[in-house]
Amino acid sequence: MSSSAYAATAASKGNATVNDAIAQASKETGVPAEVLKGLCYMEGRLSNHQGKPSLDHGFGCMHLMQNKRADTLTLAAQKLGVSTDQLKNDITLNIRGGAAVLKDEAIKLSPSHTEPTKLADWYGEVAQYSHSETHTTAIMYADALYKLLNSGFSAPTDSGETVTLAPQHVQPNTSTAAPVKAITPAPGCKNDGNVDYPGAVDCIVDPNTFDCNIVPAGYPHCTYEDANRPDDLTVNYVVIHDTEESLEGTFNVFQDPNSGVSIHYVVDTDGTVYQFLHDKDVGYQVGNYWYNQHSIGIEHIGWDATGYLWYNAAQYLGSAKLTAYLLNKFDIPLDHEHVVSHGTVPSPILTTNHVDPGPYWLWTYYLNLVHKQGIPFADGPTDSHIISLQPKTAARPLGGNGTETPANFNFFYLYNGPSTKSGLIPQLVDPTDVTDETNNVESNMSYYYLAKVKDPAGTGNMMYEIWYGESDQAHSNPSSIVQHAHLAWLAVPPDAVVKGHGTPVTLTSNDGKDVPIYGKPATGATVIGYAPNNSIFASVITTNEDGTTNLWYEINYNHREAWVPATSVTTVHGIKK
Fold first, then answer.
1. Which pLDDT tens digit goes with each residue over 450-459?
2. Which of 55, 179, 195, 474 has the fewest CB atoms below 10 angstroms from its CB?
3. Region 543-548 average pLDDT
4. Mean pLDDT of the chain
5. Alpha-carbon span 308 to 447, nearest angstrom
6. How far is CA 190 from CA 69, 132, 506, in A?
């Protein structure tokens, strides 16, 4: 079909459903509807993710990519006669664009330059469609799709439409993948036991290609640094991420020495654990080099904005067993200040950091699972004015068979005054972005409150007055992302509040001016925010700056942790300085 014909059809299908789009795309291109349904579900859980790119820079439920390995996004746009932005944001066009790419590539891949006529024979093109870094990953991608075809599924789209794929009972013709070429000859993963975590699949990358202490070209043509932790650097944190990507796409990123990023472990939705770096080594995984040096990173297959479609009991349990192993190995306390979100790690400079795993990660449920592996909860000081949130929505997945629902949302918002009618505090981005973390908190973090009142607006919520670093100049002219702490009111269900742990600390300055806030405990670090003299925060962690005796306090500054030197701190309770 010509691009003009595609465009005419696209225009006529502006209000098409996903099922309509799949049927139309199959009719247009000859790609089996079963393949289109399977790919849209495997790559995106039938979601276009609000037009946001994956970790591998692919878009939509068909993962139309635009990276150094392939540009199927532009190819699809040319085939349909539409813009790339339309493909990013319209799921029906995205499906039809993916089908056009599948047809185009299948013809080029085939020795006879014809499309496959049987469902089994699309195996090779599915492997090609992945544009994987290694041949092993391309085969994994095709295997995953055919496993899904054989099991079938029934799931909702973003709009609530149900898409159903009946089990196909198809044996893939794996010989059709013989012509598929990988980007690099790097080895794939193997289940050989040569890993740190027992039971993990060995995907550990080659230091001669990925280690920045060895590779002559240096960063970004390498992805990690070999080290000898904990002998040379302490390991104080486990960082929980999500991939914003399918499993196979995740492999493409972490098996690419030019990606500039790395991770220690990946946990699939079925709980399978893959290891990419040794525990002793420093991964480039959290966007803050100090935290990189002192943490182990765990990625989870899923998307933060639609986590309820991905996170499930099997994945939580597989991850919890891994985290329990790491806490025991490195003697790390079990609490949310040490088992952190990527989204609670501060940026070390004046920029935004990531927000994963997002509002649907069930922290109460997850930490309890880690505890059930024999790891005691952290024991530390408490105070009657330090609270933590453990809502029922964070206690367990609310769907069937260990799955979540949208009701598992666990961000809680702050208001200008002691009423939910007073308006939300400033937000950095679009209020429709559920992953934005600039005016809310997540569960199981500790905060110091000065006052509380039942919401006079009648919501039944309790309102807690806390100091919170706000993005109060983000929309000024000129704008700034320096954060300034103000008194704000946190609204939470009354049965969600439990006693938190930590020490209340008062921030002080010798001259009465605002106290600088830092993104890492290091002399000369960038100031990322300010807090008024005599403002009070909860502090759970203290640490000595690397190579010195300089003492620093971690504070829960807003949604994220932050750091202040001991010279700026007076403890509210306990021994005064």
1. 999 999 999 9
2. 179
3. 96
4. 93
5. 26
6. 24, 17, 52
pLDDT digits (tens, 9 = 90+) for 71-85: 999 999 999 999 999
**Helical pair 313-330 and 363-371, crossing angle rounded to 10 deg:** 60
Alpha-carbon dihedral angle through residues 487, 492, 495, 497, given to the nearest 10 degrees: -40
Distance CA 357, CA 166 (A): 31
Q: Which backbone phi and psi does 348 adopt, to 5 degrees?
A: -80, -10
In which region does residue 435 sit, left (phi positive, over 0), alpha (psi from -120 to 50) or beta (all else)? alpha
367-420 residue pLDDT tens: 999 999 999 999 989 999 999 999 999 999 999 999 999 999 999 999 999 999
Q: Quick one: pLDDT band at residue 185, thresholds 50, 70, 90?
A: low
d(CA 503, CA 520): 19
278 forms beta bridges with: none
Which residues in 511-529 are b (16+ Cβ under 10 Å) and which e? eeebbbbbbbbbeebeebb
Helix or strand or coil: residue 443? Answer: coil
* Alpha-carbon distance values, 428 to 280, 422, 486 (Å): 36, 18, 15
Upstream peptide bond of 220 is cis (omega within 30 degrees of 0): yes
DSSP 16: -
C-alpha 298/C-alpha 295 separation (Å) is: 10
What are 359-380's pLDDT values in tens digits? 999 999 999 999 999 999 999 8
Task: Quote the pTM value.
Answer: 0.92
Q: Which two tokens stand for residue 4?
A: 């003009």
Q: Taking the alpha carbons of 82, 86, 88, 93 in that order, is the dihedral positive or negative? A: negative
Determine how many CB atoms are found less than 10 A away from the CB of residue 130: 29
Exposure string (b/e) for 48-86, b if CB count within 10 Å is 16 or more? bbbebbbbbbbbbbbbbbbbebbbbbebbbebbbbebeb
Sequence-distant (6+) residues with CB within 8 A of 497 are: 387, 388, 389, 390, 462, 464
Task: Establish whether the linkage from the previous residue to 156 is cis, with ω within 30° of 0.
Answer: no
Contacts of 112 (CB under 8 A, 6+ apart): none
Q: Report the distance separating Cα 401 and Cα 313, nearest Å.
A: 8
User: CB burial class (10 A; 0-12, 13-18, 19+) of residue 428?
Assistant: middle
36 within 8 A of 122, measured Cβ to Cβ: no
Backbone torsion region of residue 302, taken as left when φ is above 0, otherwise alpha when ψ lies between -120 and 50, otherwise beta: left
Please check the confidence at residue 48 and state whether its pLDDT lies above 70: yes
Could you give the percent of the chain with pLDDT greater than 90?
A: 86
| C-alpha 30, offset from chain centre | 35
Residue of 166, 285, 269, 180 lying closest to 225 (CA atoms): 285
User: Tokens 């969600």 — which residue?
Assistant: 496
